[in-house]
Amino acid sequence: MKVYRFVWWSGGLFLCFLFSIGATVTLGSAQIDMGTVWKIIFSHLWYGDHLPPDIDVSSNAIVWQLRLPRVILAAVVGASLAIAGVIFQGLLKNPLADPYVLGISSGAATGAVLAILTGWGSLWLGKWTVPVYAFSGACLALFLVLRIADQRLRTESLVLSGVVTQAFFGALLTLALSLSEKEFQRIQFWLMGSFVLRDWDHVWILLPVMGLGSLCAWWFSRELNLLVLGDRSAAHLGMDVTKVRFFLLMLASLVTAVAVSVSGTIGFVGLVIPHMMRMLTGADHYTLIPLSALAGAIFMVWGDCAARLILDPRELPVGVITAFIGAPFFAMLLKKQQKG
Q1: What is the pTM of this model?
Q2: Where are the transmembrane segments (predicted)?
């Protein structure tokens, strides 16, 4: 029964994901029908750069060079944040835990902005400069959250620790922005979450990290299931709780940091999507991780599409869209926890 349910959900979400890609690529100032979009995509996959003569040059440029990389990047970022949310919620046994609420995203954004403003290490790290700095900031934020929270990792202490950590890194970001007049507006817009001026290079930076992170998280599904029972029960079943928790925390921080380094701070995806999929499909991490990744990708693709079109030709930060959806959901969860 579980296998049938997983196949049904995964198949449905995958078809919805394909439809979302095709539909969002068609939308914009230049309307291109979905048949042309998929024809261009399959032509590039089959022929490479040597396209058939019946494909319009302008349509090809709009689809392949402008819209499709942005849509794919949004999908990868959404999947990455959803996976990180599943890991944090499973490790901390807390449905309110996610990279944004815990301040991990703010730490990663601070590291990324520092890399952009200073350029330190760019000669050695190349295109990985911003992701490496973002990962360092995420690790620092995670360390602060766990140090401030009490050892029982209660919901209230974790949320308050995340608020304190987010406020601290928010102050650092404000200080950094105030010292850089030339890059102020661009970085400010990017920090609110944006996929503007992103191309295939950014996709190839994030996609391997997301793919490897998904596989590692799924490989540790059994351990995540055991940790839900409690540390003592997991240890009695032969698991090294300390090592597993440390590895998974670093994995979630890495996935979050690389996503933030290319998209800015986008909140509530790691909170809303895992909790919603847990309610719909169950709490088994063997199925929860891949289904949350698909759902996160779909959610972010349509969120970015809404950010592009609502004020067309102007563009909203995608973080505004996710916050409008995620903030009421977060308030509902917090109220439910207080009643419990």
Answers
A1: 0.89
A2: 6-30, 71-88, 100-121, 128-146, 158-179, 200-220, 246-273, 285-310, 316-334
295-316 mean pLDDT = 90
Q: How far apart are CA 316 and CA 305, in angstroms?
A: 10
CA distances from 78 to 55, 63, 81, 173, 238 (A): 31, 21, 5, 23, 34
Give the separation between CA 83 and CA 81, rounded to whole angstroms: 5
Q: In this structure, what CATH number is given to the domain that contains residue 102?
A: 1.10.3470.10
CB 16 within 8 A of CB 298: yes
**Residue 326 included in any domain:** no
Domain that holds residue 122: 98-200+228-262
Residue 308 lies in a domain: no
Structure tokens at 321: 């869209």
Looking at the 3D structure of the chain, how many domains does it have? 1
Residue 282 resides in a domain? no
Q: Which of 93-102, 150-159, 174-183 has the lowest mean pLDDT?
A: 150-159
Is the pLDDT at 39 greater than 80? The verdict is yes
Per-residue confidence (pLDDT) for residue 225, from 0 to 100: 92
Alpha-carbon span 151 to 146, nearest angstrom: 8
3-state helix, strand, coil in the chain (%, to 5): 80, 0, 20
